[in-house]
# Entry
Amino acid sequence: MKKGLKVAVVGATGMVGQVMRKVLHERQFPVDRFIPVASEKSQGRSISWGKDMQEVVSLEHALEQKPDIALFSAGGSVSKQWAPRFAEKGCFVIDNSSAWRMDAQIPLIVPEVNGHVLKPQDRIIANPNCSTIQLMMVLKPLSDRYGLERVLVSTYQSVTGTGQKAAQQLEEEREGNGSGERVYPHAIDLNIIPHCDVFVDSNYTREEMKLLLESRKILCLPELRLSATAVRIPVRGGHSESVNVELKEQPRIPDVRELFAAFPGLIVQDEPEKNIYPMPAFAEGRDEVFVGRIREDLSHPRALNLFVVADNLRKGAATNAVQIAEMVRMMHFS
# Structure
């Protein structure tokens, strides 16, 4: 196995990029040379890489260094322009934007769910939307065991899903200073906003459509019936989802708990009598997905209600991307 790899992080100074750097270290990914890449305003500054400091470089300069793997988290337009150029140089690109997710030729991967579809020839690999990733972690075992009939999901999403400026808006409002740059159309502190991303012609938001379309692709269920409502809430720790799943076979709750407990990366927190259930305050900084409030839907004999929480910057973005990088390493550099 090749001992160390040249790894670029594109968008290294952003919220997700910072967590990518952290996760690469925590998971002891074998980086021989680290190449941080960011926009022009950040180029030339030094950022931490373990105990060392590395100079932030341009995309062109990073491309010249021919990295083995590049983790992209710099937006769809950057990915569309640059991911193919990196791939042409022999680099494996793992892209966190929405640019490639629905491209039929590009795999959309949650390693625990559909890692088996990754092929040696795949040079660009899409990282799913943060809300989709945690939803897949509960739908996959249910789909395999019982079959899925219909899914209703309401998300309660952290401001960190929007980025640094959104987190800053929340903090400024909490400090009583709402005069700064506003990312959301309304105040977010002491409020919730039923609006994540932009609205499309159907009056759903793009975030809600991502949940539908990406779920169908990842689970290989092109006719899956899924409807979503995405809500922004004033927390930083992670995304929460209230999920109602109608199954093709009637489940038993004890069996469902065992099914979830056995699924890699999924942790059951389901002791309501002890006030134990998933919450973003607990999930923050963790790589696992947490599921609880597991109960029968009293209105339907084959339906379940669940509550699912994950740190959107980690499993919802950076950790999932690094896990894909680990798969690429085992496939190509061992």
Remarks:
- The two ends are 4 Å apart (CA to CA).
